[in-house]
Amino acid sequence: MNREQAEEIHEYLLDVVESLERAEGAISSLGEEARRMFASGLGAAGDAVYDELLFVLYKKYPDLRPPDKEPPHILSTLRWEEVSLPSSISEADIDRIIFSVLHSQWRKTAAIIGWALDRCRELGLAISDEVLAARLGALAEADCIESEGDLRMWRHSEIRKKPSN
């Protein structure tokens, strides 16, 4: 593949990314059950574009990688040691919720927090996104999950279940 071909393919793939983002916006306006039905397929499509196709282009032509639209910034500094859960909610409850929405594929920390927050609301649990983020950080520090990047920067870090051996 020469530079000209890579640039053409890059433009097409960026069009796909934009289309997926528009679809994600449309899906986000649906009810919770419908959103959940689309979540894994949409995530898989995005992963395929990023992890398999754009990765190949950026490896050969790193200058094609666009700059981040949003500069990375810390969204929460809350640590699990600082969290005080209500007596009706245990650490194990939080872990069950988190692991129910984790995937074996890498996902943005922000997405996992959002899905876990939805699940908490379904169950009537008054848990904040910051508490969930703090627990994810503790799970990563304890080597219970895998993480990439600074988990305090939800949109610029990723997590996944540890692969089965």
Structure notes:
The chain has helices at residues 3-28, 32-60, 91-101, 109-122, 129-141; strands at residues 107-108, 145-148, 158-161. It has 165 residues and is mostly helical. A three-stranded antiparallel sheet has the order 1-3-2. Helix 1 (3-28) runs antiparallel to helix 2 (32-60) and helix 3 crosses helix 4 (109-122). The protein is globular, with a radius of gyration of 18 Å. The mean pLDDT is 87.
Sequence-ordered SSE layout with sheet pairings:
Layout: H1 3-28, H2 32-60, H3 91-101, E1 107-108, H4 109-122, H5 129-141, E2 145-148, E3 158-161
Antiparallel strand pairs: 1-3, 2-3
Number of strands: 3
Q: What is the makeup of the main sheet? A: 3 strands, antiparallel
Number of distinct helices: 5
Elements, N to C (H/E): HHHEHHEE
Oligomer: single chain
Shape: globular
| Secondary-structure-derived class | mainly alpha
Helix content: 55-70%
Q: How big is the Rg? A: 18 Å
Proportion of beta-strand residues: 5-15%
Q: Strands across the major sheet, in which order?
A: 1-3-2
Query: How would you state the average pLDDT, rounded?
Result: 87
Write out key terms for the chains shown.
mainly alpha; 3 strands; 165 residues
